[in-house]
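[agent] plan:
  1. take the single chain provided in the ticket
  2. run structure prediction with default settings
  3. attach structure tokens to the ticket
  4. add a short note for the reviewer (M.T.)
[agent] executing step 1
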Amino acid sequence: MPAALDAIVAELREADRQERIDLLLDFAASLPPLPPELEARKDAEHRVAECQSPVYLFVEVIDGRVALHADAPMESPTVRGFVSLLLEGLSGASPADVMKIPGDLVDRCGLTEVLGMLRVGGLTGVLRRIQRDVARAVGSAPTSP
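[agent] step 2 finished; step 3 output follows
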């Protein structure tokens, strides 16, 4: 797992229930807005279907590093917070490190006991979507001679 994400997971895991919620809210407040050119491209192709909240992801691999942009509604602060922590923890990571993130990340963060099962499923879908898009970006990247 990328070091930045590992540090976030450790912080969440060590926190009590209320602190985890507070941390998610802090992350939600720090999610940067989409650049205008991506805001205009929010469509079904970029929406995470598994998540009830309208979450939009834009994933690229640039010079061997993952670049992420995302949008999640202010009205869904826990979802927005999880998306924000993924952006912070994964931006600049190698594609290989992103692909190694375990599917039970939400549980490892201690969020399963804080959020309902429907939310947990949606957040897991966000991670799977990032991994799928990274794999697609790497697969379509030109190879060096």
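[agent] step 4 note for reviewer: The chain has one domain: 3-140.
[agent] ticket updated
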